[in-house]
């Protein structure tokens, strides 16, 4: 084992030394040109090309090519040499090396001499032949029509290489085009091409290269000579579509653009599914002056996918069109709705449109679209009706105008797919007229607006007086009920209790002056009203000629009433000390003293004079 390892190490060192070997001493030479190109045009062959410069001295010189493989013992001179000569003289020199070692480094040296002088080095380089393939040999291309419209068959010379596969690149274009229409890549030596244009010739040429791998690699070789041909024109372009009206039968229609080409053409429509296949023989010609159309119908199972192919044949050749496979529920195109009626509606300027589904089986599976326009006008307005509906109201129509209405249907459920069907027959009607009552109602709608506008103008100058009349000022209770809303937050019971306690603890003279009282409320409770009447009935005249109420003083009457109140109210009272108060009347006891209340009516001036000496409680 040790001996084997030493042998392998010696072999590796020898290869390394050979890899660094430079028999031409290229590293020490300064080359000014790199015009030599070496490559493998075929397997086991190397070709080196040198384009002669325009310099007269070197053009008339003698050239030789020395090459060396790393496994060789010494450089070898290439003896297979070819010169390309034109009217101006030599232009290119080629050398061919027939004994090639692949996966081995190849070194070459170009030398020249003039008039018997010594050889001088001109160019030196190295390469691997297996990585420098540039395949040649495509000398011809043949293009022929296939008999099928727009199809051409292209054949070219193949390159047979036992060691690797070859890629071919086909380029074709139309006359007058500066850019290629298409590039195709194939490993075959022939291909069928579908042409886009039918009335112009096409040009073709081909080139080749090795299929890129980790072992062999190269660039595209030169293009082959150009071949030209014109594709066959059989029927021109045909467009086909298939649909179902009733989820049972399939209808296929196709149209063409060239009437002359289709005049003597035979059509064969083939269809097949999992359980059945056949041809449609009953072809209908639906052509008109503006359109060339054909139709054929056949039955098909709803649960199976159907495929359809159309073949057109005449003396020029044949043309085939295929429809994508489909289920019946995917190609639904309903027929036009029936029983379409348009009539005036019950409302003003209204039309009522009614219709029926084309077949009973699709009655609840369709959606509808309505279009209408004034008679003689080609501008239509579209409206989508609700699904499964059979009527629609058209409102805000123009009076005394005649309208035409059409309807079409389409699949209206997720289970069905397809397209809009044809438009129905035209229904014609006028909208309902504008009634006199409606005109009057329209005019009356403006009366409130005008009234409000005039009222605002008239009241603009007296707005303050109107405001006071509509919203009179409300007297404030803050002065009469001191502290009720500030200290007690509107809690009357707490305020009353606090005021009562303050009144019972206050001491005053027995002959109290008159006090002004404002009648504050007309919503007293029934009990308070009764007590007030009892007090009034027992009143006796006092010194001032007024009656005394002989009632007990309520603390509510002890508030600050020094400010005058409005005229015409009940103003004054006389508060006197009375020890003979009825215990059944409302009273407030303060250290055994009881006060008597006398109510009088007078003007604000008298009330002010009477109350000026009244002490505060």
SSE diagram, text form:
Elements: H1 2-19, E1 36-39, E2 46-51, H2 56-59, E3 62-69, E4 76-77, E5 80-86, E6 89-97, E7 105-113, E8 120-128, E9 141-145, E10 151-156, E11 166-174, E12 182-186, E13 190-194, E14 202-210, E15 227-229, E16 238-244, E17 249-256, H3 259-262, E18 266-272, E19 277-280, E20 284-285, E21 292-299, E22 306-314, E23 317-326, E24 338-344, E25 351-356, E26 366-374, E27 381-384, E28 391-394, E29 403-411, E30 427-429, H4 436-444, H5 447-459, H6 463-470, H7 492-505, E31 511-516, H8 526-537, E32 540-541, E33 547-548, E34 551-552, E35 572-577, E36 595-600, H9 604-610
Antiparallel strand pairs: 1-2, 2-6, 3-4, 3-7, 5-6, 7-8, 9-10, 10-13, 11-12, 11-14, 14-15, 16-17, 17-21, 18-19, 18-22, 20-21, 22-23, 24-25, 25-28, 26-27, 26-29, 29-30, 31-35, 32-33, 34-36, 35-36
């Amino acid at each position: 084992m040790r001996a084997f390892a030493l042998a392998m190490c010696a072999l590796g060192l020898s290869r390394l030394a050979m890899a660094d070997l430079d028999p031409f001493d290229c590293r020490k030479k300064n080359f000014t040109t790199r015009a030599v190109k070496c490559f493998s045009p075929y397997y086991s062959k190397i070709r080196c090309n040198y384009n002669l410069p325009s310099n007269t001295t070197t053009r008339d010189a003698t050239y030789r090519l020395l090459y060396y493989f790393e496994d060789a013992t010494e450089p070898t001179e290439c003896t297979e040499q070819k010169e390309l000569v034109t009217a101006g003289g030599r232009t290119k020199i080629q050398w061919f090396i027939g004994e090639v070692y692949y996966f081995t480094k190849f070194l070459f040296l170009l030398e020249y001499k003039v008039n018997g002088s010594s050889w001088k080095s001109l160019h030196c380089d190295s390469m691997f032949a297996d990585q420098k393939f540039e395949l040649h040999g495509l000398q011809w291309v043949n293009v022929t029509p296939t008999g099928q419209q727009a199809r051409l068959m292209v054949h070219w010379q193949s390159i047979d290489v036992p060691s690797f596969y070859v890629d071919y690149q086909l380029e074709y274009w139309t006359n007058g085009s500066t850019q290629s229409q298409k590039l195709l890549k194939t490993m075959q030596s022939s291909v069928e091409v579908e042409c886009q244009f039918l009335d112009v010739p096409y040009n073709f040429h081909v080139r080749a290269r090795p299929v890129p791998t980790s072992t062999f690699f190269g660039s595209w070789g030169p293009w082959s000579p150009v071949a030209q041909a014109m594709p066959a024109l059989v029927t021109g372009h045909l467009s086909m579509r298939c649909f179902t009206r009733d989820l049972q039968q399939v209808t296929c229609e196709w149209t063409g653009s060239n009437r002359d080409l289709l005049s003597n053409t035979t059509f064969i429509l083939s269809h097949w599914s999992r359980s059945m296949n056949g041809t449609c023989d009953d072809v209908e010609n639906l052509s008109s002056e503006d359109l060339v159309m054909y139709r054929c119908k056949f039955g098909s199972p709803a649960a199976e996918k159907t495929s359809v192919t159309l073949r057109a044949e005449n003396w020029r050749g044949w043309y085939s069109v295929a429809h994508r496979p489909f289920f019946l529920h995917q190609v639904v195109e309903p027929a036009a709705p029936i029983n379409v009626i348009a009539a005036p509606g019950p409302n003003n300027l209204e039309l009522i449109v009614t219709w029926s589904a084309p077949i009973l089986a699709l009655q609840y599976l369709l959606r509808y679209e309505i279009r209408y326009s004034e008679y003689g006008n080609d501008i239509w307005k579209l409206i989508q009706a609700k699904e499964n509906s059979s009527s629609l109201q058209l409102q805000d129509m123009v009076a005394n105008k005649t309208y035409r209405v059409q309807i079409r249907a389409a699949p209206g459920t997720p289970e069905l797919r397809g397209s809009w069907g044809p438009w129905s027959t035209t229904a014609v009607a006028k909208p309902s007229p504008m009634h006199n009552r409606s005109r009057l109602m329209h005019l009356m709608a403006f009366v409130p607006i005008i009234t409000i506008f005039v009222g605002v103008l008239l009241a603009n100058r007296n707005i303050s007086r109107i405001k006071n009349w509509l919203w009179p000022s409300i007297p404030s209770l803050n002065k009469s009920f001191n502290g009720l809303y500030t200290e007690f937050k509107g809690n009357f019971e707490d305020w009353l209790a606090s005021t009562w306690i303050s009144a019972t603890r206050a001491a005053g003279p027995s002959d109290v002056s008159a006090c002004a009282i404002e009648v504050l409320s007309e919503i007293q409770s029934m009990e308070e009203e009764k007590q007030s009447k009892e007090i009034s009935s027992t009143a006796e005249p006092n010194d001032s000629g007024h009656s005394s109420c002989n009632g007990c003083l309520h603390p509510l009457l002890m508030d600050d009433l020094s400010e005058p109140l409005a005229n015409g109210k009940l103003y004054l009272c006389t508060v006197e000390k009375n020890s003979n108060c009825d215990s059944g009347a409302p009273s407030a006891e303060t250290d055994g003293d009881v006060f008597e209340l006398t109510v009088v009516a007078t003007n604000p001036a008298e009330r002010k004079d009477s109350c000026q000496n009244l002490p505060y409680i």
